[in-house]
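INPUT
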Amino acid sequence: AQKITQTQPGMFVQEKEAVTLDCTYDTSDPSYGLFWYKQPSSGEMIFLIYQGSYDQQNATEGRYSLNFQKARKSANLVISASQLGDSAMYFCAMRDLYNNNDMRFGAGTRLTVKP
Amino acid sequence: DVKVTQSSRYLVKRTGEKVFLECVQDMDHENMFWYRQDPGLGLRLIYFSYDVKMKEKGDIPEGYSVSREKKERFSLILESASTNQTSMYLCASSPQSPANQPQHFGDGTRLSIL
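OUTPUT
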């Protein structure tokens, strides 16, 4: 069975600094995708970035990048130049790419950006 | 822009009531999902549907049922609400393919059962 682990319940970062949010996963499937979502206090889930298990390069989307280490089964999210608006819950999720219906989510990390 | 709309942001109901949570998507997605979100547990899948009138149980279906009569609408039903169903409920949709597409979420419904 697939499992996602986010070991940091809460993180603090100073505005304009970079921060890394940890995510490790466990799967026996060879083909899978990893997703990161942001959930502000208003509640909506916002998709940030995607990494496929066969992708050769780490994914990047603006200030977001994914530090993908396949052998270690980790997919950490890096946010550069943190902004106050980055304060939110962040969820890591994984899906077997041959089973479009089975998305597994981690418990989440609450990030607080300090001015 | 993609849009998933949940009928209520906040809802308060009483124990034993039958509760309906509605979700509509305008992206012509085949797949639709209902999750429950509780602190420290992340999102847990209640039910999903991959086509009209089709449904599959997720990890925690007990006490819930679903209905998908039209492609764009997916309803979650609490047959007899109980206090342990107080939670945040999130609806999502995604296309059947390609598989690397993310799920798109609604704004969530904070449900309180008194």
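end of record. Chain A touches chain B at residues 4, 6, 9, 33, 35, 37, 42-45, 47, 50, 52, 91, 93, 95, 97-98, 100-103, 105-108 (CB under 8 Å).
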